[in-house]
Design brief:
Order of helices and strands: EHEEHHHHEH
Strand content: 5-15%
Distance between the termini: 51 Å
Number of strands: 4
Shape: elongated
Largest sheet: 2 strands, antiparallel
Radius of gyration: 33 Å
Structural class: mainly alpha
Helix content: 40-55%
Length: 178
């Protein structure tokens, strides 16, 4: 049976991982990362990334079904907070990076926050985005196109001779009880 992947949750995880990775990249010139420029927002963004990943991981308890380590309903709020923090950091640079140009890490953080927000919105609305994967081919199976089916046998021809007399119904002999 093909596996089904929830697209909204996949976007949340991809966005959260990209947000965490962006904190280690250069945000401002000359080669300043978020860890060296921000005072506390870097820790907040890292916490948002970790919390959104934990909101996708289910709790494995027999008495509770559908519970996550961090409530799933928090995803839109976490994503919105990440988007606001990143946009403010792009528009109003922190004092340690005043008048410095933006670099790749800042733009990756912006893209990650947008993807994170899109995934959270998809997860909270009734919009369904499900990705279906085909199962992996096992060893020894070929990935060639399947061979065509054989042609069906020809239709039977009309019977020869007196077909009706050969297949006519005969009365049962007397004395049989069926």
């Amino acid at each position: 049976m093909p596996e089904r992947i929830n697209g909204g949750q996949a976007l949340v995880v991809i966005g959260a991982i990209a947000l965490i990775v962006s904190l280690f990249l250069h945000w401002y010139e000359p080669n300043r990362s978020a860890w060296t420029v921000f005072e506390v927002w870097d820790v907040v963004l890292a916490g948002i990334g970790v919390a959104t990943i934990l909101s996708v991981i289910p709790v494995r308890r027999s008495d509770v079904r559908g519970e996550h380590l961090v409530p799933e309903r928090w995803q839109p709020f976490l994503a919105g907070a990440a988007l606001v923090i990143v946009v403010v950091a792009l528009v109003n640079q922190p004092p340690a990076a005043r008048d410095a140009g933006l670099q790749f890490g800042a733009w990756l953080a912006f893209a990650a926050a947008v993807v994170l927000t899109a995934g959270a919105v998809l997860g909270r609305t009734r919009i369904s985005l499900v990705i279906t994967r085909k199962p992996n081919e096992g060893p020894g199976r070929s990935t060639r196109a399947p061979e065509p089916e054989p042609e069906p046998p020809p239709a039977p021809s009309a019977p020869d001779g007196d077909f009706e007399t050969e297949t006519a119904t005969q009365p049962l002999p007397r004395g049989s009880s069926s």
